[in-house]
């Protein structure tokens, strides 16, 4: 792993890169209130084929808060992502986001299409989120997994540990201020939409996949919101299968 602290428009961003430098790069966008650690369980398989780059958006994880509240915005985060990619010498990359991170990933694709090779949107929704339904769906999915004899995956250490916890709500609110109305139709790179059958975001994910010009939808059986954390094995294998067909 290579770790860097990158200065970007008034903030210092914590960024990490795993995998061979010559491998194709994938930029990872974390879920709401998650840090780069949320991806730890998928790293062993992912880095067999990709160079994985991840960073904590300003105000979360080990990154510093924004210098000004107006900097909590997805267009700023997209510029931050480009600064991170530049620091690791990456011109174009694949993109993978989960839940809140799917919104940030989608915004990044729209704002900087020239840097996007493909995008994977897990647990994606561009509708109003329902956190209570997300939690209930995840609970029911875990019950189904237990009944099916599927072992539970422990959350990675540090997946929700923030150096500046008071800044996290403002950092997350950025996703609600971006206009996603016609976003799926404007993404022309290959798109993977993957969502659990117990995730209330499934209807919005279906809509995204139906409207994006070059998209495919995968629905995980007995999986709720937070698929990368709940079933990292299934999440990474689906991602690799998608890229095997490109």
Structure description:
There is one protein chain. With 246 residues, the protein is α/β, with parallel strands linked by helices. The protein has one domain: Alpha/Beta hydrolase fold, catalytic domain (Rossmann fold, 3-Layer(aba) Sandwich), CATH 3.40.50. The chain contains eight helices and eight strands; from the N terminus they run E-E-E-H-E-H-E-H-E-H-H-E-H-E-H-H. It has helices spanning 43-46, 74-87, 100-111, 131-147, 168-172, 202-211, 227-230, 232-244, and strands spanning 2-8, 11-18, 25-29, 51-55, 93-98, 116-122, 191-196, 215-220. It has an eight-stranded mixed β-sheet with strand order 1-2-4-3-5-6-7-8, sandwiched between helices. Helix 3 (100-111) links the parallel strand 5 (93-98) and strand 6. Helix 2 crosses helix 3. It is globular. 51% of the residues are buried. The model has no long low-confidence stretch (mean pLDDT 95).
Task: Summarize this structure as a short list of keywords or feature phrases.
246 residues, alpha/beta, Rossmann fold, 8 strands, globular
How does the SSE layout of this entry go?
Layout: E1 2-8, E2 11-18, E3 25-29, H1 43-46, E4 51-55, H2 74-87, E5 93-98, H3 100-111, E6 116-122, H4 131-147, H5 168-172, E7 191-196, H6 202-211, E8 215-220, H7 227-230, H8 232-244
Parallel strand pairs: 3-4, 3-5, 5-6, 6-7, 7-8
Antiparallel strand pairs: 1-2, 2-4
Helix pairs in contact: 2-3
């Amino acid at each position: 792993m290579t770790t860097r602290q990158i200065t970007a428009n008034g903030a210092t961003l914590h960024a990490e890169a795993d995998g061979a430098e010559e491998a194709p790069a994938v930029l990872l966008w974390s879920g709401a209130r998650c840090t780069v650690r949320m991806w730890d369980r998928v790293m062993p398989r992912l880095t067999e084929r990709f160079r994985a780059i991840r960073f904590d958006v300003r105000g979360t994880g080990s990154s510093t808060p924004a210098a000004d509240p107006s900097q909590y915005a997805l267009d700023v985060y997209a510029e931050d992502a480009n600064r991170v990619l530049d620091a690791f010498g990456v011109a174009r990359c694949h993109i993978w986001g989960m839940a809140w991170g799917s919104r940030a990933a989608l915004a990044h694709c729209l704002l900087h299409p020239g840097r996007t090779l493909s995008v994977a949107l897990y647990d994606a929704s561009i509708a109003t989120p329902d956190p209570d339904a997300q939690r209930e769906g995840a609970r029911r999915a875990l019950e189904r997994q237990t009944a099916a004899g599927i072992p539970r995956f422990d959350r990675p250490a540090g997946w929700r540990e923030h150096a500046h916890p008071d800044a996290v709500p403002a950092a997350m609110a950025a996703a609600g201020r971006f206009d996603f109305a016609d976003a799926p139709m404007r993404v022309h790179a290959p798109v993977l939409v993957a969502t659990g059958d117990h995730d209330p975001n499934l209807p919005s994910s279906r809509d995204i996949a139906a409207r994006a010009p070059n998209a495919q939808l995968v629905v995980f059986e007995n999986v709720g919101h937070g698929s990368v954390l709940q079933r990292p094995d299934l999440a990474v294998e689906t991602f690799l299968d998608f890229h095997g067909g490109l």
